[in-house]
Design a protein that fits this description.
Layout lengths: L6 H17 L2 H18 L3 H26 L4 H20 L4 H17 L2 H12 L4 H29 L10 H29 L15 H7 L2 H19 L3 H7 L5 H28 L2 H20 L8 H19 L5 H4 L7 H12 L2 H15 L3 H27 L4
């Protein structure tokens, strides 16, 4: 960001960046992450059907990541981010109508364009520009931690809101009551997303981010694609993102394994949201203090331990305190990585002017779980009732965590590859 701007203006831009980075994903993902059991019941769909909708999002997103990089190297974040938020919010109106599974699936495909092609690379480039050469971990950690704080506040507020529309005995709620309550939360999320679109247009008016040329080219993609370290960063992101996708299971895990009701399971799911600010900021600061890839190794180690405990079936009803500790620590590892995803660009020595192209290329591989993990998760949970499905799911996370840890070791020892 422009260092000549007054401090208040710079902080206001950072605050806006944090809001934009989180609210763009409220409708596609946060609703189901907090209220997955309610969502499945209201829409009358299975985990696999929801996972298939996520999969279409992922397929569209992969194409969008690739083309979004050069787009971000050409156009300003102000235009791309604000328009992305605007059209994303409109999709929430459709979701609030509780459409058929076909319409819901197509809606996720639409969001794959609005939240990725127009948003992701532009948002990431603006974040990197604000960090300078020596504070990448701090900046990315602060932005993702701030996003986590926003998500936690919204998650906690939404649980209270949905509870206010339901009877005191949640289990006695009718399908109509659940549908109305969920629709109200979705509409409020849509309104908030629209408001932030306006805030971005106002706040980013003087935001200056370096661009390469006056037209969209593939020069940056070719330049960064030759670096082997970029592909390592992409694999690290993919393994870390599998962990992030597994947080979608927290509320259902609480319901199926710990026997929580719909509201209490949503409360437990918010643990991940409240862990995120501390973990992302902490990991970013540690990355700047030591080496970013070294902290990535530590985060993957924490994830492996936590997912192993869950996969071995150690968490059972009556062990609520232990469940909170395990889910919190596993979330800390997962969200710590989110504070370091793109801070590794500095360690990889990627020029600022090619940031959009690098982010796009890394994301094409790194976010492939958006394609395959939703259906896989649905297949595992639908095909294995009770605790067994969740144990298998976190066994898969253990595997990906191990791969990520090994790749992070090679990233650390050959930083300029």
């Amino acid at each position: 960001m422009d260092d000549s701007s007054p401090s208040f203006e710079r902080y206001f831009k950072l605050f806006t960046l944090i809001l934009a980075g989180e609210v763009v994903f409220l409708l596609p993902f946060v609703v189901t992450r907090i209220f997955r059991p309610v969502f499945l019941e209201v829409f009358d769909i299975t985990n696999f059907e929801l996972g298939s909708a996520f999969s279409l999002y992922g397929i569209v997103a992969m194409v969008s990541y690739f083309f979004g990089g050069p787009l971000a190297d050409r156009y300003s974040p102000r235009k791309l981010v604000s328009f992305s938020l605007l059209v994303t919010s409109l999709g929430g109106i459709i979701m609030a109508m509780i459409p058929s599974i076909l319409v819901l699936t197509l809606l996720y495909g639409f969001w794959g364009v609005s939240t990725i092609l127009l948003f992701w690379a532009a948002f990431t480039k603006a974040t990197r520009a604000s960090g300078g050469a020596n504070s990448q971990g701090n900046t990315f950690g602060l932005v993702d931690g701030g996003r986590g704080l926003v998500a936690a506040l919204l998650a906690s507020a939404s649980v209270l809101i949905i509870g206010s529309f339901l009877p005191e005995n949640v289990e006695s709620a009718t399908g109509e009551q659940l549908s109305f309550a969920l629709s109200m939360v979705i509409l409020l999320f849509s309104l908030f997303t629209l408001m932030v679109a306006g805030l971005v247009w106002f706040s980013f008016k003087d935001l200056k981010v370096e661009t390469k040329s006056n037209k969209i080219t593939w020069e940056g993609v070719k330049a960064v694609g030759k670096k082997s370290i970029i592909w390592k960063q992409a694999i690290i992101l993919m393994c870390a993102y599998v962990g992030y996708k597994c947080t979608d299971d927290f509320s259902l895990f609480a319901s199926d394994v710990l026997n929580y009701d719909n509201v209490d399971s949503a409360h437990l799911a918010t643990i991940a949201f409240w862990t995120r600010p501390i973990a992302a900021v902490g990991a970013g600061l540690l990355g700047d203090r030591f080496i970013h890839s070294k902290i990535v190794v530590v985060c993957f180690g924490v994830i492996i331990v936590g997912s192993l405990i869950i996969s071995l079936g150690i968490l059972k009803p009556g062990r609520e305190l232990m469940a909170i500790i395990v889910l919190s620590s596993t979330s800390a590892g997962i969200f710590g990585l989110r504070g370091l995803y793109y801070a590794l660009l500095q360690e990889a020595k990627i020029p600022m002017v090619y940031t959009g192209s690098a982010v796009g290329l890394i994301s094409v591989i790194g976010f492939t779980p958006d394609i395959f993990f939703g259906p896989l998760m649905g297949y595992i949970l639908d095909g294995n009732s009770g605790a067994s499905g969740h144990e298998i799911l976190f066994g898969v996370l253990t595997f990906f965590g191990t791969i990520g840890l090994l790749i992070a070791f090679t990233f650390k020892t050959k930083r300029a590859a």
